[in-house]
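Treating backbone geometry as a discrete language has practical consequences that deserve illustration. In the encoding step, the backbone of a single protein was reduced to a row of integers, each denoting a local shape. The amino acid sequence and the backbone structure tokens for this protein are reproduced below.
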Amino acid sequence: MTVESASGTGRSDSSNGSGGGGVSYANCAAARATGAAPVRRGGPGCGSHLDRDHDGLGCDRG
């Protein structure tokens, strides 16, 4: 199940019921709004769309 946050930040929380949950960000503005930026490859909320220079660190540019 995916639920858009009430704050409208573009953050989604999802859980498949297996005890694991995930957070994803639509863009870097959404990650920054929640204090999550920069995000690291493999870490919560990171996706290739956030790491434009492919250095393993997303949303690291202002």
About this structure: The longest strand covers residues 11-15. The helical segments are 28-33.
